[in-house]
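# step 3/5: fold
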Amino acid sequence: MADPLTEWAAQVAPLALVERKLHIADKAEAMVGILDGTLEDWLLRCEQAVERERARLVVQTPDAPAPDAPPAEDGPRRLVLLPMDQVQPAAVEWLWQDRLPRGKLSVIAGDPGLGKSYLTLRIAATISSGGPWPDAGRADAGSVLIVSAEDDYADTIRPRLDRLGADVSRITAIDGVRGDGPELLRPFSLRLDLDLLREAIRESGAVLVVIDPLNAFLGGIDSHKAAEVRAVLSPLAHLAGETRAAVLAVHHLNKGSSSNALYRASGSLDFVAAARIVHGVAADPDIEGRRVFVPVKCNIAALPAGIGFRIGEDGVQFDRLPVTVDAASAFTSRAVDHEERSERELAKEFIRGELADGPVPVRQLFQAAKDNGFTQMTMRRAGQDLGVEKRKEGYQGAWQWSLPEAPDSSKVIKDAKDAHVSDVNTFGIFGDPVITFDGAEPTVVEQAARLVVEIGAASPPLLQTRLGLYEAEACAVIDTLTAAGIVAPGNGDARSVLLDDPDEAAARIAGLSAPQAESGDASETLDA
C-alpha cells in the first residue's frame, strides 16, 4: 500500500523540471520580435508568458494530501474497540518519583540562559550512574539517548557529564542521520526519523531520551499551527508509551507576560498540551544566582514541591532551601524592581552594622529593623543574601543571627566519608532556618532523633529523604545520634535504634546541646 505523500511526490516531480526551465524557455520565446518594440514591451511579453505557464502548472498539479491523512484502505473501515473490563490496571512507572514518568512525554520550559540544558544533563547523569535524587530516593541505573542542537558534544556536553559524575558508557548522542552515500548526513528529524529513534531505543535499552530543544527537531513544520505540532508530538508520545522510555524535551518560553505559565510556551499550546508533565526553570526572585525547578502541569500525579539549584564549577548543585515561588510568579517575566533591590541593599548594610559585634537575638534585631523602616520579608531576603547564621542559644534559648565566619579550610567536608562529629558542629549548621520568637522550634538533629525512634531505623538516605539533608549532613547527624546513645554503632548505612520513646530521644539531644552553650565546643562534648 503506497503512502499518499509518496504517490503525490511522484506525480509532481516531472512538473518540477518544467518549472526550473520555465524562465529561460519562455523568455527565449518572447525575444522573437524584440526589434519591433521597446525593451519595456519585451519585459511585458516575458511576464505574460511566465504567468500563462504558471497557471498551466497550477491546473495540472494535484493537491497534496493532508499531513495526517490516513493511508488508502482496500476494504471497509471499522473501529478497534477495547472493553475496559479487559484492561489490566497499571501504576505509573517513574524514573524520578512524581517528576519524570516512564513511557510519557515530559517538558522542561524556561527562558534562555537559566540552565535548562544543564539540568537535563544532571538528570541524565543521575540515571546513568544510579545516583540519588535531590528530594528522595535513588535512580535505577539505565541508558540514556541525547539529541542536542544547542551545545557541542565534545567541548560542552561531555565535560559537563564528567563534572556531574555521569557513567558516560551508558549515554549515547544522536549526531544525525546518514543516507546511502557517505556524504549524505542530515540532522535528525522527529517528523521523518521516529522509526530510527525507536530502533535506537530498543538497541540501547534507553530508559530516557533527551531532546534539546524540541523546536530544533520538528522537521520544518510551523510551530504555531496546532495541527502540525500535534502531528509530530502525538507519534512521539506514542513512541514513548510503546518503548516505555521517558522522553524529556527542552522548550523555550516566549516573551509574553501571562500569569499562566502554560501560555508562555513558545509556539502552539500543543507543545505543553501533549506532555503529561511540564516543569519550569526560572530565576529565584528572592535569592541572587539561585534557580528554581518548579512544576507547571502534572496530569498523572499531585504537583511536587519545587527544588532550588545553582550552577557552579561542579555543575548543577541542588539545595534544600524551600522554594517560595510558584509557576505563575516564576514565569511572569517580572524581575525584582530597582526600588525593591535598593531597599534590600540598605537592609544588608543595616544587618552588617547590627551584627558587627557578634550575635544578636532575632526579636531584638527585627524590632530594630522595624524601627528603621525595614519589613521582616526584606530582612529575611537580605539575611539570605548575606548568608547569616541562625542558631539557638542553649537549650530552649532564643534564636540569634550572626554574620558568617570565614571557612576553616582544614574542616571543609570534601565527601561523605570525611564528615565526622569532630568536624561538624551539628547544633549550629543544622539549626532550624525558620525564624521564630518563642525559642521552641526543634533543631534538625532533634527532629532526626524523633524521626528514627518513630520509624525504628536510622540511615543517611532516610534523613536525606525526610529532612532534606545533603549526604554529608545526614552522616554527621547519624554520628550525633550514635554519640547520644539513640542509634547503635555500626559501619553500614542502616543502624538499629536503641530507644523507643521519641521524647526521651529529643531530650538526649537537648542535653548534648546544653553543655555546648557553656563550653562553646560541641565537638569536644560529642567526642567525650
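# step 4/5: annotate
Residues 17-30, 333-338, 407-440, 514-528 have pLDDT under 50 and may be disordered.
# step 5/5: archive (pending)
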